[in-house]
Structures are given as C-alpha cells and as structure tokens.
Amino acid sequence: MFDPKEHPHRRYNPLTREWVLVSPHRTKRPWQGQVEETPAETRPAYDPGCYLCPGNRRAGGAENPEYTSTYVFQNDFAALLPGCPEAAPAEDAFFRIEPVTGICRVICFSPRHDLTLAEMSVAEIRPVVDCWAQQTAELNSTPGIGYVQIFENRGEMMGCSNPHPHCQIWASSVVPNEVAKEDAAQAEYFHAHGRTLLGDYLEREMAAGERMVAVNEGFAALVPYWAVWPYEVMIVSRRAAAGLDALSDGERDGLAAILKTVTTRYDNLFRVSFPYSFGFHQRPALAGGEGWHLHGHFYPPLLRSATVRKFLVGYEMLAMPQRDITAEAAAARLRELSETQYRHLGRWS
Ligand code: H2U
Ligand code: ZN
Questions:
Q1: Which residues are marked as active site?
Q2: Distance 71 CA to ligand 2 centre (A)
Q3: What CATH number does the domain located at 42-344 have?
Q4: d(Cα 326, Cα 265) in Å, to the nearest integer?
Q5: Model confidence over 174-225: pLDDT tens digits?
C-alpha cells in the first residue's frame, strides 16, 4: 500500500505548475537531530557602525534621519535604475534582450538595531505592514512599474548584509519569472472556477488541518503541500485580497500578528535567530492580474539544527527540487513550538 509518509513521491505546485520530489523514508524523525548551543547573540540597540541605524551615514554619504518607526530610502546600490535609454527588444531568438527599469528601496522596520520581527511586538510590526501597503500603492501607480517585489533576507546564511531589521523593495518595469508563473496559474484557475486558486486551496487546508501552522481572522500560515524548503511556510490572506494595498485595517493587524507568530516559532525551532528569505506575491501593476490572492513565502534553509542546512544543489539544479521531511511533519513540528521567543523564556526552559 502506498503511504506518502513512507514512500517516495512527487507533489504538484499549482501556483508554479512544477513538481517537487518527496523522499520521506530518508528521515523518519528529523526533529531528533541535535539542538546546538549557539551563543546567544547580543546586539546593542544602537550600533554606531550600522548604515541603517538612525543618525548614521550610509555608503554614498546620505545621513539617516533620527527616525522613530519605519524608514524608507532609495537603495544606494540599486539593481534597477529609473531611467534607461529606449531600445526595441532584439528579435534574434538566441540573443533576446530588452531594457529593464525600476526603483529599489530599503525599508528599516525599526530604529532598534537589536530587534527582529520575532522580537518586535505586533503593535510595532503593524506600521511595517502599513509601510508595505503604502509603498505598494505608490509604486503600483508609478508610470513604468510592472511589479512591486517586497522581500526580506534574514541572517548571514541568506546573504543578509546587516542584522538591523529591514527589507528591500525592487519595483521593476517587468513582471519577474516567479510572479509570471503564479499570475498565469491564478488567472487560469479564476477563469475556470470564478474563485481564487489560493482561496479554494486554503479552504481545503483549513479543513484538513495537518499542514496548518497558525490562523487568525485575517491571515493563515501553513506549510504548503508542495513545500520545497524543510520548514517552508506560506501565509495567505483569508479573504482574496489582491495585494498589500487592498488590506483592511483588521487584515493588517492579522498580517502583523501572523508574522510575529511564524517568526517566533521559527526562532524557537533551533533556538537561533532563524534565517530565511521572505517575500510577498501580489497582483502585478501590469499584466492581467486576475485571480490574484495576496500571499507571502518564507523560504528558510535550516534543516536539522542551527547549522545543518538544506542546499538546492546537484539533483535540484539539474533535475527538480527534493525534500526529505514531509510538509505534514514540518507543520506538526512548527505547531508545537511556543509563541514566546526562546530568549524571553529563559534558557532551555
Ligand atoms: P540586504 O541586507 O538584504 O543585503 O539589504 C541591504 C541593502 O541595503 C542592499 O541592497 C543597501 C544594499 O544595496 N545598502 C544601501 O542602500 N546603503 C548602504 O549604505 C549600504 C547598503
Ligand atoms: Zn542598526
């Protein structure tokens, strides 16, 4: 008898229309791995050498104001630039090229150098949500912008250059690859069923329960059936809001609360400030945009401990993504963790 808890199988991701290989027999009880004693990081509330702290100078000479909540500035090393000489796309099938323009910004979540989302209160995260909504609205209505990507790299392991709590916005003239895949899948589903793909998916997940991590009135967090990263989590708005700019007051509170819950449980998993890349997917300013349902993806690399990470190499680069622990096992592990961050619980309590 085929048992998805035992036998290798592949699962389908309806958002990207790609498969993931699941090999559950390789690690029956992944959480039996060691919990390492990592030295508790202590950071000062203000770091004179930090380019994001209030009052400090950034590369290029600009000086941060004495900000007290969120702070947005133009990325000094922007990957996309607003102006670019016009050029017709090259027709050559082997040498396609076209200009891309855009706007890159950095958002500081807090003036406090020593905090993370997990260590900020829901009331402190709420202005960050408002900032994302405001930036989305502003950039979506900026001529020449096709898509607003908001993302956070957390931790050195994910290439984050600075522990000061912050994220980035890359707003581009084009719709990026991952978003284009999700756009096509959601639009097709919406045309066929008259409902959003993620609305229907969430309904099924909430009924099943086994992959749910947390839920509040505005948002749900779950390990998607098709997760690739060991403790991957998707957060989804309960109502089919198309983007951050479409969230109600109450839904913004719900988003702040679910972010606090997920990041806190992450930190508690291996008792370390948990590294991840996180970002939202929302309705593009350009392109169809039909059937869009706001969601965020947490892609964390850690597998068995604070140091044992998952790499997407070898078979994954050449063939397809693969995971050992099932989405159900990962969700069960995340559900049983405390909602109080380990540093506030006392060591090893
Ligand atoms: P990451 O930690 O995810 O690398 O984000 C930091 C961003 O901050 C990065 O994109 C920018 C970098 O270009 N930055 C500035 O805009 N000004 C600075 O003085 C240093 C870094
Ligand atoms: Zn700082």
A1: 166
A2: 12
A3: 3.30.428.10
A4: 18
A5: 999 999 999 999 999 999 999 999 999 999 999 999 999 999 999 999 999 9
